Structure formats: C-alpha cells, structure tokens
Amino acid sequence: MSDFTMVPHDSPEWAVMWENLKAASGDYSERCPETNECWQYMGTTHIDRPAIGSLLPITVCVHQFRHRHRPADAKPIEGFAGDSRRCRVYLDIVASHDYAPQNHPMGGQCINARFRPYLDPVTVEG
Fold this sequence. Notes:
The protein has 126 residues and is mainly beta. 11% of the residues lie in helices and 33% in strands.
C-alpha cells in the first residue's frame, strides 16, 4: 500500500470504514441544514503514533474523514472532549485488520479528532 490511497467503493473496506465512522460520530449521513454539508471521505494514509511505553513511533493506516460544518444537534465524537458541533471536524479512523494487518488490535477506532470551530454564525444566501 502506498502512503496515500483511495479505498474503492466495491472494496469490503468501504462499508467497514463508513460503519466505523458511524460508531465514532453517531451518523455518517448527518447533513447540516444550514450549509448542506455532510461527511466526506478524504483518503487513506499512514500516520505515526507513539507506541505506549516506547519512544519509537508506530505506523498506523487510517481512513481520513471530514465534515465541514456539523449540525448543531450532532452527537459528540466518541472518546474526545470538546464540542464538535457547528464546526469543521477531521477524523482519523484506523483501518480494519483485514485491510491493514499491522493495525491489529486497533482496527476501527477513531484515534485522532481535530475540531475547527467557526467564530461567526454561518449565513447561507439562497
């Protein structure tokens, strides 16, 4: 697997990664009523994560997702503090063991979440 790839729609991993996103975020189809934004798959890559109890990083294969404007009533991101509603959200979800065997036993877990809150209310002109 190269450093960056796109999972094909007909791959078994496609359904698995979207279900893992749903487990982390509550709903992979959530659409913001103000902006009409929804979750987007951005690609699959490898990132370095420090191994617990070690100074050496381990490389983990992750699927990256973003939501450019989560709805105000969105569920909090599982396992991460902070308000992830009405903001831009980026999630790294570990690829399944079948897709990337080196990830076992972390497959399917959300290991990184970044929130970019909007400082001003969003207005949509129609």
